[in-house]
Design goal:
By secondary structure, the chain is of the alpha/beta class. The protein is 27% helix and 25% strand. Strands 1, 2, 3, 4, 5, 6, 7, 10, 11 and 12 form a ten-stranded mixed beta sheet that branches. The chain has a five-stranded mixed beta sheet with strand order 14-13-15-16-17, with no helix packed on it. Strand 8 (133-135) and strand 9 form a beta hairpin.
Length: 362
């Protein structure tokens, strides 16, 4: 057996039925692939899902008690017959050639730890995951909630950290590092997993030639329960061992923007980041610009209408503005303000590397 696709399930049977139908359709009649659905909800029996596949490749593992995502993955791996594992969330909808895209990475690179698909939002096509990095104790999620830059089409990129939303890894490697750590009940287990691979000298990659879509939120509150505890555990375990240059990654994201930067900007900061100084330095270095004035608005709760919090007379300022925030979508509703600032070169930038000319909003 070549591949074991492992899907963890808690609830949302209708969604996982659709996901399995698309998955079976994509792998056609391949007999070197098995699908293992690991149910982590003792109140549900999902044996009926086996009927979805005409080739009887779906196996179901029910449980008597909830153990969390990591245990659900590890439980399935014990039964997996494939040489390679593909960890997949139950609300992932695959596209044509998603599997071939992952396979391609192994044909072009060696000493691979794991490989991730590019994961997009099912409803609006924005990025959910295209690799991960760290800036201090903040997780950098490149282009989260924004579009994937066209320059990334047909690319394979090395990243220190990856999500397990749709992740391929050799079973031998998975077992060598003892799989997902059950101490990370429902979060940060994939980042911990990635760090272990880094420590062993393996390289992790994400490819845009494998695209899948993420529905999101079907597991409910149980999926985010204890997230702050697992975050604290992650940085407690790896804080002194992390050698990830997230600022360098962030600069590379800014460089992918299709803009012509100005030499000077007025900065309006809406971000609550602990590392604002690092982000500002990245922007200055990448765009060879300086900030002639800075306005700190981090105490505001977003979304906000700019004319409610900024003096209207500054709208006539000829110097271009940079609006820096945590999530680019928290300010895009300011069409009226941006219209009156048109053709001045204003930029909307967030801490995940999304860069948008405000002229493109209206």
């Amino acid at each position: 057996m070549k591949y074991s696709i492992i899907i963890t399930y808690y609830q949302g049977k209708n969604i996982v039925q659709t996901a399995l139908q698309l998955l079976c359709k994509s792998i056609k009649n391949r007999d070197d692939v098995e699908i293992i659905v690991s149910c982590d909800n003792p109140k549900e029996n999902i044996d009926s899902l086996k009927k979805i596949d005409d080739f009887s490749r779906i196996r179901i593992i029910n449980t008597k008690e909830n153990g969390g995502y990591s245990i659900a993955c590890n439980r399935a791996v014990k039964y997996a017959q494939g040489e390679r594992l593909i960890l997949m969330d139950s609300d992932i909808f695959v596209t044509k050639n998603w599997l071939e895209g992952l396979e391609e990475v192994y044909s072009k690179h060696s000493h691979i730890g794991c490989v991730s698909s590019t994961i997009l939002n099912l409803n609006n096509g924005t990025v959910v995951h295209w690799g991960l990095s760290l800036i201090g104790v903040e997780v950098l999620k490149p282009f989260r909630n924004g579009p994937l830059p066209a320059k990334l089409n047909n690319t394979i990129t090395k990243f220190p950290l990856l999500t397990s939303g749709c992740l391929m890894v050799d079973k031998e490697i998975y077992e060598k590092i003892n799989g997902m750590d059950p101490m990370f009940y429902n979060g940060y287990c994939d980042l911990d997993f990635s760090m272990k691979l880094n420590l062993m000298g393996y390289s992790n990659y994400v490819t845009t030639n494998s695209v899948v879509y993420h529905r999101g939120k079907i597991a409910g509150q149980v999926r985010i329960m204890g997230e702050e505890d697992t975050r604290a555990l992650f940085f407690s375990r790896w804080g002194n061992k992390i050698s990830i240059d997230g600022a360098k990654v962030y600069c590379s994201l800014l460089d992918l923007a299709n803009i012509k930067p100005a030499s000077e900007y007025v900065l309006f900061n809406f971000s609550k980041s602990l590392y604002l100084a690092q982000y500002k330095e990245c922007i200055s270095d990448s765009y060879k610009c300086k900030f002639v004035r800075e306005n700190n608005l981090k105490e505001l709760t977003l979304p906000v209408l700019l004319e409610d919090v900024l003096p209207w007379d500054i709208c006539a300022d000829s110097t271009p503005f940079i609006y820096f925030c945590d999530n680019i979508n928290m300010l895009t509703q300011n069409r009226h303000w941006f219209f009156h600032r048109s053709n001045r070169g204003d930029l909307l930038i967030d801490r995940n590397g999304n860069v948008l000319s405000t002229d493109n909003i209206f």
